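Running log. JK asked me to keep both predictions on one page so they can be read side by side. First protein, sequence followed by its tokens:
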Amino acid sequence: MSKPPPPIFVQRETYRSRRLMDAARLLPVLGACLFAVPLLWPEEGGGTISTSRAMVYIFGVWALLIVATALLSRRLGRGGGEGGSGTE
């Protein structure tokens, strides 16, 4: 005799939307950590980083955060409308 498969604790769409919400909540923390990286760069000696490179890094992180936020909001908006109406 074969056992029936165990029941799914949480539906896949609900699980995925919750993980996306968790990622959206952690994105500002990730951004703050990435913005703080230039503070760890050496200030004196031969291994200094120029201001222009630091600004390119900051604007690169800024652009990356914008793209990540846009992707997360698009996926949350698409999933929230379908999953939210079915559970209420």
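And the second, directly underneath as requested:
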Amino acid sequence: MHVPELRDEWISVPFVIDTGAAHTCIHAVDATRLFGLKQADLDPANWPGSTLIQGVGGTLAYRELRASYAFQRDDDAWEIVEAPVRFGEFRSSSTPSLLGWDVLSQFRLEVEASLDFIRLTRTKS
């Protein structure tokens, strides 16, 4: 994924596919490890604006940024999706980064658990 406000380069993010999440979110462990953010960068008091999102574990503040997501197809071409990403406040460190419906809604999702197989096929452009 690419978040131009934070990094010039593309970053590989280990998302958990979460069909119960409305929004794609990067939580504190990945924000610090992959994007180089500091604890102060994940403090809503330092953000120009934030949104509260209620989840299974409670309510957290999130900062929304523009992002691009790249998915490699079976033919090695890339599908690029433009959608916002939400960075969670620092206390989100126990939650993995989630690929939510804002991105998933542009794909058909195939899951074959017995084969450890997941495929996203683009349905919208």
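Observation for JK regarding the second prediction: The chain is about 10% helix and 35% strand.
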